[in-house]
Amino acid sequence: MQAGWLVRLLLGSFLLVPTLGYSQLEQFDEELTIKSLRDGKVFSKFSFTTILKGASPRDPRNLGTDDVSQHYIVFPLALGQILREYAVTELHLSLNAGKWNYDRWGYPEEPGVGTGAELWTWMGDSTQSSINERWRGLRNALAGLFCASLGSLDEQRTTSPARSFLPEGHLPDWGIPHQIRHASLPSENVCTENLTPFLKLLPCKSLSGIASLLNPHRLFDADWHGMSVHVLWRENRGVEIRLTFQTISDPLRLSSGRKQDWSFRTLFDRTIEKTCPVAQSSRVVVTLPTSVAYAIEPEPSSVVLGLASFDISNSIKPLDIGLRFAGDFQYPVDFDAPLTSLSVQRILHGSSQAYGQLSVKLTNHQAEPLRVVYLETMPWLIQFYLHTLKIHIDGMRNDNAMSEVTYIPAVPHARPATFQCVLSIPSGATMDLSMDVAKSFLRYTEHPPDAQRGWDLPPAVFTLIEANQTSPLNTNRRLYTPTLLVDLATPDFSMPYNVIIFTCSLIAFLFGSVFNLLTRKFVVVRIDPDKKNE
Amino acid sequence: MSKTKRYSRSRGLAFSAFLAGRQLLAFSSSSRLLHGNQQFSSALTSYSHLQEGVYLFKNGVDPYSGGVFRHSPLYLSLFTTILPVTGTASSVLWTLSDALGAWALVKIWNSRQCVPSSKRDTLVAAMYLLNPYIFLPSLAQSTSSFENTLMLLSLMFASQGRASATLLSLAFLVHLSLSSILILTPLLLLLLLDPVSRLASPKSLFSLGVDFRRLIPFLGEFVIYLGTFTLLSTFTSGGWSWITQTWGASLSLPDLTPTTGMWWYFFTEMFDHFRPFFLMVFSVHLLIYIAPICIKFQYDPLYAAFLLIGILGTFKAYPTLSDPGLFLSMIAIFPETYPYLRHPIVTALLHLHASLLMPLFNHLWLTQGTGNANFYYASTLVFACSNGAALLDCIWAGLRIAIGEEREGYAVAQE
Q1: CB–CB of B265 and A517 under 8 A?
Q2: In a mutagenesis test of the B interface, which of A402, A517, A524 is the best target, namely the one with the most B β-carbons within 10 Å?
Q3: For the whole model, what pTM was predicted?
Q4: Please, what is the Cα angle at B307 between B302 and B311, to 5 degrees?
Q5: Selection from A128-132, A272-276, A399-403, B290-294 with the highest mean pLDDT
Q6: How far is it, in rounded angstroms, from Cα B186 to Cα B157?
């Protein structure tokens, strides 16, 4: 029938338009990078990027009015709604577990490897709704979305370190100032219930494409793992969401011999069965080893500069990429040679629960002098004594190596301390920074349930400044030190009633005795020995 | 040689000997070891906090924006300009402060006895300088030594009848330590009267012919001095935040570092709901002793001031050992009460017990980890008992003198 044919044509065009629309407005790419490391471990990074072309973040000055309707097809709706609700320009959230060993594994591809949860955003200031209110709403919304206790990143953990955490994308030119809010929770544990909502943000979930390799049993068994969400805006591209998952797996531990071989089967216990249909590009990039004999299968689509690329959509499924090494694993001769320009070690000395000493040791492995921005965001539990800060370079005292110090002191029960400075380390030298700290005595209700475990202190962040720069750029590398555990003095938790009773009794006794003595009259009493018995 | 000259010569020699010994000890590194000791300094008086505040101030950071520095801005202005804050020169400062305090105590004694000098002067100075409760916090460079010195100076000026000097030093003292406001009333009475001992013959102030109209200008002068210092402090620190950090600390107890007093553990274990109420109770508790003691001892205001110093030493918010130490040292100027003290041995033994156990239990709890917070808390309770016992004994003795000597067949009691 003619009408039916027309209706079908119209319906078809309606169906076609959205798909045409998505390919113009949204783009989804996924990539898996795998690299064998020097000590036999395997670094894998999953990266899922969704670009909303032509879009821009919400202007916070429009927060009073209703938002324009947003239509997303591939872009995750749950996260997009949160971003619009709180007018967030740039957001970085990472949930990591384990300690990233810079000396063995080099720099990670995503720099945010501090243990626990780390959340930092750049938001525009507005009179409609202050940044702090939106920060609180954002934390709680993300806590609900990712099942992580991000709601406890309150003012006692929030700082504004603008020199160390520069925006990765661009900040829109609305004429209003943008501010950063950064908070970290080192004691946050990461597990499957954080991975599940992460996967729900992907268009293909974990059913097809590279995301189907994300097997929680193997991922959370890794030596180090971290998931992160990055939202940024680039002026010529639009809003970009990048979801990444990095792991350090250990094939040596799982292999029966000393074989460094890995494959999708051994690493993730999964293979790629189907391509994700909405992915514009879906690649696996393997860094080929340079010094040993190996065999890689299946054949890569292309090999460029030592990187083998596999195009998933054109590969035979089920796809199980594997790298086999000719011989057994041998620790290389230059096993301990540094892979980064800077090695950092941070220790809290002291066995007293009243005082301690924070000491940071930096070693410059470069041939040129190195300048770094040292950021310390210490909770108010640890009070710095800045006047005791001592710097020794190779054993010699040199306090001039520190410059451009900004210090925002901690306010007890309210605000952490923010200490930022630029350190200059000569080439090949070791710098020892030490500072006395005082440990606080907390109120009864401020102690956590397992008070004797201690408190986790967030990592210090070092941002490397290149030789020709005066201040760091957003592309500069960031190093995170491991977290510290501080043991604070605890009162006796079984005793609140007893303490109040004892003290009040003593005060009442003294008060009563003083007033007795002051108010009673003296009498002289005759003691007659004859009438003693009466 | 006249008696006075002989006394002055021996007094001077003894003085110098004590001070030289103290300074020699201060030159050793024992000072540095004692800086962090929680018996000798509190959050309001610690030397490390003072150094930190001065360092932040010199480097352009507002020391009152954070929580470590709780000293008065007057300390900031003095230590960044004329006084040294590091090294051996600062230890000389503390020795000089102790010397001044001892000299002021001797002068108070002389005013009370109405003689220019007496043979007990050396003993009085020794009771101040050699008292470990005074000399150890001074060695730890705790600023409570300055507060003691100012207290004694204001009492000395009041004993000599010099009103302006008294009120100026008291205003300065209140700026350094808010709880010292307790001493205002007996000092004013002392200015109206004189320091001569009248414990044996109590009379009301009216019958002694005191002119109360002189009180108003004294109070006005004190308020003016206090206001001037407040404005000076605000100007130095560039804002009003110093008020909540320094004076507010005594009232709201933000820092719960253990001290020798009764407040810290009480407010550590207190639930948040009740904190404001009990903070109010503890602060008002200090104030309610002023009126009764001043009314009862109105004929001997110096003794009333002495008792209120004892109250401060026992019940203050952030005490150190210097506060009860001042009380114990000042007993030296009231020898007329000695025969009537009922239990001096018990008080002394309680003090010995507490002063030996407090540092031990503090060390066991915080450094060694084999003890509990309760050990230290118990020892501070014993210390409070010992201070209370001393206070009660002094009150009893001060009142008992008026009844007269003990006679066969009669007993004196209170009903």
Answers
A1: no
A2: A517
A3: 0.90
A4: 145
A5: B290-294
A6: 13
At residue B364, the 3 state secondary structure works out as helix
pLDDT of B43-102, one tens digit each? 999 999 999 999 999 998 999 998 789 999 999 999 988 877 777 788 888 999 999 999
CA B14 to chain centre: 24
Joined together, the tokens standing for residue B383 give 């210390």
Tens digit of each residue's pLDDT (9 = 90 or more) over A69-104: 888 888 999 999 999 999 999 999 999 999 999 998
Max Cα–Cα distance, chain B, nearest Å: 74
Which ipTM score applies to this complex?
Answer: 0.94
Which strand (E) or helix (H) includes residue B226? helix B215-237
Is A345 exposed, middle or buried, given 0-12, 13-18 or 19+ CB atoms closer than 10 A? middle
Mutate to test the interface with B, among A386, A403, A421, A441 (most CBs of B within 10 A): A441
Contact A168, A240 (CB under 8 A): no
Encoded tokens for A257: 């011999």
A378 strand-pairing partners: A417
**B293 contact residues in A (CB cutoff 8 A):** 518
DSSP conformational letter for A68: P
Q: Quick check: A507 and B372 CB within 8 A?
A: no
Cα separation of B414 and B219, whole Å? 36
DSSP A57: P
Question: What is the rounded CA–CA span in Å between residue B125 and residue B137?
Answer: 17
Largest CA distance in chain A: 140
String of DSSP letters for A79-145: HHHHHHHTTEEEEEEEEEES---HHHH---SSS---SEEEEEEEEE--SSS-HHHHHHHHHHHHHHH
Say how many C-beta atoms besides its own lie within 10 A of residue A8's C-beta: 10
Q: Under a CB-based contact definition with an 8 Å cutoff, are residues B311 and B182 in contact?
A: yes
